[in-house]
Design a protein that fits this description.
The structure is a homodimer.
Chain A lengths: L2 H31 L6 H20 L1 H11 L2 H4 L5 H18 L2 H24 L2 H22 L5 H6 L8 H24 L15 H15 L6 E5 L5 E5 L2 E6 L6 H19 L17 H15 L3 H14 L9 H7 L17 H16 L8 H13 L25 H21 L2 H5 L5 H10 L9 H9 L6 H15 L2
Parallel strand pairs in A: 1-3
Antiparallel strand pairs in A: 2-3
Helix pairs in contact in A: 1-2, 1-3, 3-5, 6-7, 9-15, 9-21, 10-11, 11-12, 12-17, 15-16, 15-17, 17-19, 17-21
């Protein structure tokens, strides 16, 4: 077998794994959206069988041999941006990672986190950190053990970040986050001391769900989500899932008295969906060349449409009349400006998922600091609540009245997902930096939004980001697309501009 | 490995195959109900991969060895109705069948029928039998070859029947069908010459789809379909699919001006669904002991609820007021008797799927005669249209004006599904025989229906039929449950009673 044949065999195998992975994807989607709850245990059995099959196929020693064989070809690797070089780079990375963990550790992690999730639900319900703490005491050493098996240069947390944001390091986050924290805290203080306050009660006015459904679909379509190759359904927690080259599904949820929530959820998931729908497909489907770069880059696409577009004044200059028509009577007495101010209200809150553009990243920075300290062995789990509450006071001026509203609010740690949180903030930073670059290259985007034209922005994203697949790692993509390394400057400038205008500073 | 261990290993393997089979089931359901059409080719790839996996796992020579080993145990086989004996009997049957066809024949059949389905669609559209005929000329020899590989005693058609109705023979159908045909033809003539005619136009009155949806769901629930372990959705062609021990899904379709269609489709599929939901599950799931007996028995359950219950006067004595409330104004001027007459209108028609309780089985008998003649080499494909039309004239007094309304109307032959049609009629015959037995054992069922009580009938079916799984073959089950072999007498008596009353003879 020559290197070209080895490569062809790899492509075939990886596509088969993708077919099985997407099959699991359909089962997962169905479980959240339509499956009768009584079938949960059986569905778990199905998903576990498929996951085992995918893992077995991917970690087959033959795959390792094929990768090595293909890597020996100069032709296929010399141009590091060629399809074959990109695919081999990513297959090598994933293969090495997935073969580095001993089976025993994988099983122990699965066993512990499966119980820990149940315990987390109960601990939060009982508002009792002491109940969850022993589980963290099991999970953290397992994560540290994982990091040791994966290997790292500077900090064990680097090895964990790699699962979500390949190539990202703790050092890089330590460069980005502290100045961001400082500027955001200052911004929170300025907003807090402003005498201007939006009337957010208008957002709780009843909007019939069928009309919300129609309006959300219309907006999703307007920004470019394709319903001939996708769907929108309802689930308890909104998500996006790619189930095939022409099948991308988003979900949202509706509450009659919370139009804002369903609307921005839909826009957010549509952003993820537009990324997925515009990854390369023909011939590439199932390979890294046709896959998303990282969680951070994925989040940049959702946040860009949700916030930089959907919470912008230009967007609503065009759509506010349509909104008024969609919900007759609901907003008759509300000016465009008042509506725009309301959807951009900012105030410190205890819960990350209820926070806003200004405060969100402070919630993340707080978690990041705690995660790094825990994985680095510098913080005891017993000290999490006090550390958490102190940071909340410092950054947001709030003291959580309970751990349920504090360090017990998120599910992530019970999954053993240390290293996930930072990707949310990276998404926000990337979104602003990409938007600024697009604005410069395409011409003033807001002028187009005011006319309801989102195509130039979407096409720019399609070409610069979506069509690239994993050709570049996140950092390189940013450099390539914006001409600069990732920086918080764009995001901060965007926030200061918008919130300065709204709150008058 | 002792026989008990071999048996345990078989159970484990078969459950894994069921898990994969149900996974394919979810993909198939999703394809018909929610998948964007653009994803069809990829979904076909997924389904083909899963089908291949299931086939490979089931035909693994190791499975054959395990069955032989387990069969050597007296303990597990001496009581032919024990779980182990039942499972081994059915595994042996399926294993032998699935290993009897040479790979080349299976592939050739798949290739030919895949093209033939496309050709059938076009031929019907163009009303051009000569376009479809060459495909039948390919498919029939392949079916004959299949029959030869499977083996048979009397007639090659027996070997094909076995796919749908294990143990059924052409000889048995030749006993059942001719007198049925005769009696039904006579009944058609009597109805045709009656001066009483129902006003069927009332069934085309507009009924808003949301109200139809709610009413159909309510009726499905009333007869015992469990929505905590099932769903109802919309698809182009109604179907029922079991996706797990607590997940049975039915579909229907709605047209504003055809309430009758969606209602009886829902009742029909609910009947299938109730069977599926009440098969044994705990511990047995994935084995023959927990599977349906045959297509004919499955159809008996759908037809029983659709026709013997749902088209009965007693049912509507209870539900007609509710129907009137569900569609305000639509039936205000229609008496219960007029409504009942309308939903039992009978008249010859060209299309099988549009026929009624009296005429339906004549459509089947006609197809059966042609199938047996084709597979037996007694009829040339070129003679299908004339044979078809002659039979239509003889049984139903109609001459199809075109092949599209005649021998090109059904998809089955393009699938190579010879032997499928008779199961529809078997379902009808079984339904009446089961109903009569239940009525005798439980006490007058109609008296209970008038009070909206369907539980006694459902419980009887649960116990006598559903809970048995494949313990008995269809014929034995009928003997066991009704004390008699299958006979057309019950069905004919039921028809004569109902239609005699309605049409006055």
């Amino acid at each position: 077998m020559n290197p070209e044949q080895a490569y062809a065999d790899l492509v075939r195998r990886m596509k088969e794994i993708a077919v099985l992975g997407n099959t699991a994807g359909v089962l997962g989607w169905d479980q959240e959206v339509y499956m009768p709850a009584a079938n949960a245990a059986y569905r778990a059995e199905q998903l576990s069988l498929l996951a085992g099959m995918c893992h077995q196929k991917f970690t087959d020693p033959k795959v390792g041999e094929l990768i090595s064989k293909a890597e020996s070809s100069k032709e296929m690797t010399q141009d590091s941006l060629s399809d074959s070089a990109v695919n081999l780079r990513e297959w090598r990375r994933s293969y090495d990672r997935s073969t580095k963990l001993p089976q025993k550790l994988v099983e122990e992690m699965a066993r512990v986190t499966s119980q820990a999730q149940v315990e987390w639900v109960e601990s939060r319900k009982e508002n009792k950190f002491s109940r969850f703490q022993p589980w963290l005491d099991k999970i953290i050493p397992l994560c540290q053990e994982q990091a040791k098996c994966y290997g790292y240069q500077d900090h064990p947390y680097d090895a964990l970040l790699e699962d979500y944001e390949p190539g990202l390091t703790t050092a890089e986050l330590n460069r980005l986050f502290p100045p961001l924290k400082e500027s955001l805290s200052a911004l929170v203080a300025k907003i807090g001391s402003s005498t201007r306050k939006p009337d957010v009660s208008i957002l709780k006015r009843p909007c019939p769900i069928p009309a919300q459904r129609a309006f959300c679909r219309r907006m999703s379509e307007a920004i470019g989500f394709r319903f001939d190759r996708g769907r929108i359904d309802v689930s308890a927690h909104p998500f996006t899932t790619g189930l095939g080259p022409a099948d991308t599904r988003i979900t949202t949820r509706f509450e009659e008295n919370n139009f804002e929530n369903s609307f921005f959820s839909t826009l957010h998931e549509s952003g993820h969906g537009i990324y997925d729908q515009n990854l390369p497909s023909d011939g590439h489907y199932g390979t890294p060349r046709a896959s998303a770069v990282s969680l951070g880059i994925h989040e940049s696409q959702s946040r860009l449409w949700e916030n930089l577009v959907g919470r912008g004044l230009a967007f609503w200059k065009f759509f506010y009349p349509e909104l008024k028509k969609a919900f007759p009577g609901a907003f008759d007495d509300v000016t465009l400006e008042a509506f725009h101010f309301a959807i951009n209200h900012s105030a410190p809150s205890f819960i990350r998922t209820e926070s806003d553009e200004v405060t969100y990243n402070l919630h993340i920075c707080l978690r990041y600091d705690i995660e790094v300290a825990l994985i680095g062995g510098k913080l005891k789990t017993a000290d999490i609540p006090s550390t958490w509450n102190e940071a909340m006071r410092k950054y947001l001026g709030l003291t959580p009245p309970s751990d349920a509203l504090g360090c017990l609010q998120d599910v992530h740690w019970s999954h053993g997902s240390f290293g996930y949180f930072p990707t949310y903030t990276l998404g926000n930073l990337y979104s602003a930096q990409f938007f600024a670059a697009a604005d410069k290259e395409v011409g003033t985007l807001e002028g187009k939004f005011e006319k309801g034209d989102f195509t130039p922005l979407r096409k720019w994203l399609n070409e610069k980001i979506h069509a690239q697949g994993q050709r570049y790692r996140a950092g390189d993509l940013c450099q390539e697309v914006t001409g600069r390394n990732l920086s918080a400057d764009f995001f901060l400038a965007y926030l200061k501009g918008k919130f300065g205008n709204l709150y008058g500073f």
